[in-house]
Design goal:
Order of helices and strands: HHHHH
Shape: elongated
Radius of gyration: 24 Å
Number of helices: 5
Structural class: mainly alpha
Largest sheet: none
Helix content: 55-70%
Distance between the termini: 66 Å
């Protein structure tokens, strides 16, 4: 029985060494547009953090899906404009804000 287990293990190791999985398949494939949006969101987040912890927490509280999309679009159009968009939205009173 032990010889059978050893043979199976040897076969499994031989198969895994012979056909290693390419590393590029380890990463999820994303489109260029998704990559731009991700990079813009990272810049937006960094810009919001520059405002200090209180501002950042207030901005995260205010940041809903619509404002996030608007800020990311502004950040894509002009780096640095995303944080300004969020700051402007925070200063503008909202009428009938959804809770």
């Amino acid at each position: 029985m032990a010889a059978l287990i050893q043979a199976a293990c040897a076969e499994a190791e031989k198969g895994s060494v012979a056909n290693p999985k390419p590393t590029r398949l380890d990463r999820p494939l994303i489109t260029a547009e998704q990559r731009r949006e991700n990079e813009a969101f990272e810049r937006l987040d960094a810009g919001l953090r520059k405002g200090g912890i209180e501002f950042y927490l207030s901005a995260m509280d205010r940041l809903d899906a619509d404002l996030r999309d608007m800020a990311v679009a502004a950040e894509i159009a002009e780096p640095g404009a995303g944080a300004a968009t969020v700051r402007l939205a925070m200063l503008t009173p909202t009428i009938g804000r959804k809770e």
